[in-house]
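Q:
Got a chain?
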Amino acid sequence: QVHLVESGGESVQAGGSLTLSCTASDLPLKFYRIGWFRQAPGKEREGVSCINSNGGETTYAASVEGRFTISRDYAKNTVYLEMNSLKPEDTAIYSCNTIPPQTWGQGTQVTVSS
């Protein structure tokens, strides 16, 4: 089974910033469209952002447009999600995955306090 591993989640105050990382030791991410997703307590998983394999196309959910930036580093086999101007409603477990998805990993917790 292939697992993507997420890291970088923390507890921050509203208005703060975080950068999440997504990597895989046994999968060359450069061949895949990669998405970031989040799941808040009691809610379904939702798509946050995605980036195509060559990095030339990115999309964002309306709720994060202008605040979040997705990028990829091919040398490090890593996809990042830079999150700025964080709001309490951004609190969730953030996960990354290929599109279509591999096995889901554990994700990384982001908690934003007001």
